[in-house]
């Protein structure tokens, strides 16, 4: 085995030609001088926007700077024979309408639902006859209660009521994801028709209020309070509270004690896939297969997608209207509208001529909170992890807990809070929060026989280390070693199973995927950067101060996560505007 490890190359390997490329004949792949719409960036939201626009008869071209489409929803063979969902790694939030409208199953999307879905092993001493305890959660409520009762009978009884409480809140909030917030600029300064149209966007908000009814004050606390306070109201056992709290802080530079962390929890439990509420699935072939399916849907209707075509500038005419883009190689492409799937910072501070943007708007964009705690580590291993709390039956046979999100260093919310405090002081967490996933446990196509791909979504790591130090290779490897030491305590033998690893700190996530500050949501999902205020107040409806320029990425409403709503909503806004031009 040692020889094969030494022979592993770190070069990127290309996957077989995806369907979306095969759907573009050579003539269509040739760049035209003009399109109706241009999309900057082939992240999943940009692809969704292009697919909808093309179906509506808007001739659309997408320009992607990397060699591969998908943005953060990408599959890359960064280690020969091992295909990783290199950034995002699970699917749940994709809007059901998008799944249906774009016929993604027809275009090759295959999902592996996970049940059970959550596994939290304890770091405690076992005996020869009894392993350490663990908490395994799935779709069977009776089994969930049995698992929780190991830690608290009271919590086992409360859990179904908590789930119903959260289900009702999801029911209220869900429709808000599929419509633009109130257009304050149109409401204040538009024509009578524009004002009436703007008012109509309040309907989902009013409906949400009616759904919550008399319990609105309690739900308000969930959205605005710290998740630790919310969970303390419902439960007493720390393993359950800490496990649930991970969904409130994942991807966010927040502690369970941070006000507003409750909304991020809600954001991560409101998904639905193929009719299964709250389901989280692995995508067959990795997350890039989702992006390929969306792209295939777009190109099947005539959209054009170009990779390794970096957009250098948005062109604006003398009347302040978008007229196209300029590529890095100097080529100009004219269009009636431009949609940017890039972050608000890249879109408005780097690509857009500053003279056409109000100073106050530029200032707000430059002040957006994009802090990220995330370091993603992709690992190739030669065998399944063997957890002390759930020993393997055989070396090669995955067990139910192997398909889960495996939460390590998550036995107590205080451990999560201390990990956060470390990073606020400029230090990588001493006991980082680790979400370990093994997608090859359900999708063996991702790794050679007997081997597996392991995704480690870890936090908290600051963008810049204490004293202003920039991450170097030694810092990255020191942190990864610390993460592996933590895993070893739960699963002895893990370190010796490692063949190779790919370490992505916040600066790496920014450089490779264009995530500002390494933030997976394109900006904090805090209450001051949501709904009316995403990306900034007055411009939450996908439009911006320049006519014909739109934001369609995660920096727009309703925010991050692989849901596609920003792309779909922006496409509909663009189509309405094109009809009136």
From TrEMBL:
Its main location: mitochondrion. Belongs to the carotenoid/retinoid oxidoreductase family. GO terms for cellular component: mitochondrial matrix. It is found in: Mitochondrion matrix. Interacts with COX5B; this interaction may contribute to localize PYROXD2 to the inner face of the inner mitochondrial membrane. InterPro entries: Amino_oxidase, FAD/NAD-bd_sf. Probable oxidoreductase that may play a role as regulator of mitochondrial function. Gene3D superfamilies: FAD/NAD(P)-binding domain. Residues 1-23 are annotated as: Disordered. This is Pyridine nucleotide-disulfide oxidoreductase domain-containing protein 2. GO terms for molecular function: oxidoreductase activity. Keywords: FAD, Flavoprotein. Residues 46-574 form the Amine oxidase domain.
């Amino acid at each position: 085995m040692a020889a094969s490890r030494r022979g592993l190359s770190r070069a990127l390997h290309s996957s077989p030609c995806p369907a979306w490329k095969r759907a573009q004949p050579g003539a269509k792949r040739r760049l035209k001088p003009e399109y109706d719409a241009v999309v900057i960036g082939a992240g999943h939201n940009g692809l969704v926007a292009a697919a909808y626009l093309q179906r509506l008869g808007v001739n659309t071209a997408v320009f992607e700077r990397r060699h591969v489409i998908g943005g953060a929803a990408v599959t890359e063979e960064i280690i020969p024979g091992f295909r990783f969902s290199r950034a995002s790694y699970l699917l749940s939030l994709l809007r059901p309408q998008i799944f249906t409208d774009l016929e993604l199953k027809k275009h090759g999307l295959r999902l592996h639902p996970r049940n059970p879905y959550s596994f939290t092993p304890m770091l405690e001493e076992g005996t020869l006859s009894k392993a350490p305890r663990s908490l395994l959660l799935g779709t069977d409520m009776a089994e969930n209660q049995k698992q929780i009762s190991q830690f608290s009978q009271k919590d086992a009884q409360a859990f179904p009521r908590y789930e119903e409480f959260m289900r009702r809140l999801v029911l209220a909030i869900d429709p808000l994801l599929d419509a633009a917030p109130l257009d304050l600029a149109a409401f204040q300064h538009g024509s009578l028709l524009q004002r009436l149209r703007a008012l109509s966007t309040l309907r989902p908000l009013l409906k949400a209020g009616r759904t919550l009814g008399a319990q609105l004050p309690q739900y308000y606390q969930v959205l605005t309070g710290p998740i630790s306070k919310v969970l303390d109201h419902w439960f007493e056992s720390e393993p359950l509270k800490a496990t649930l709290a991970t969904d409130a802080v994942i991807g966010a530079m927040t502690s369970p004690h941070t006000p507003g962390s409750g909304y991020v929890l809600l954001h991560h439990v409101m998904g639905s896939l193929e009719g299964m509420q709250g389901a989280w699935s692995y995508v067959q072939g990795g997350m890039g297969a989702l992006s390929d399916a969306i792209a295939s849907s777009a190109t099947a209707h005539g959209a054009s997608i170009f990779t390794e075509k970096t957009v250098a500038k948005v062109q604006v005419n003398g009347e302040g209207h978008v007229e196209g883009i300029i590529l890095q190689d100097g080529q100009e492409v004219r269009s009636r509208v431009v949609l940017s799937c890039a972050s608000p910072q890249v879109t408005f501070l780097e690509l857009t001529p500053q003279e056409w943007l109000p100073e106050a708007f530029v200032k707000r964009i430059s002040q957006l909170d994009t802090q990220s705690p995330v370091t993603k580590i992709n690992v190739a291993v030669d065998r399944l992890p063997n957890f002390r709390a759930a020993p393997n039956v055989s070396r090669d046979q995955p067990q139910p807990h192997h398909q889960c999100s495996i939460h390590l260093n998550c036995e107590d919310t205080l451990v999560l809070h201390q990990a956060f405090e470390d990073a606020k002081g400029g230090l990588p967490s001493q006991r980082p929060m680790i979400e370990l996933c093994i997608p090859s446990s359900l999708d063996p196509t991702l790794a050679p026989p007997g081997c597996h791909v392991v995704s480690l979504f870890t936090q908290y790591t600051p963008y810049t280390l204490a004293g202003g130090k920039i991450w170097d290779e030694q810092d990255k490897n020191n942190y990864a070693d610390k993460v592996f030491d933590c895993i070893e305590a739960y699963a002895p033998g893990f370190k010796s199973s490692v063949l190779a690893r790919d370490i992505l700190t916040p600066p790496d996530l920014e450089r490779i995927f264009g995530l500002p500050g390494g933030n997976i949501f394109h900006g904090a999902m805090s209450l001051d950067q949501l709904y009316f205020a995403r990306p900034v107040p007055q411009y939450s409806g996908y439009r911006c101060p320049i006519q014909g320029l739109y934001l369609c990425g995660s920096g727009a409403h309703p925010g991050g996560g692989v849901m596609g709503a920003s792309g779909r909503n922006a496409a509909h806004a663009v189509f309405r505007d094109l009809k009136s031009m």
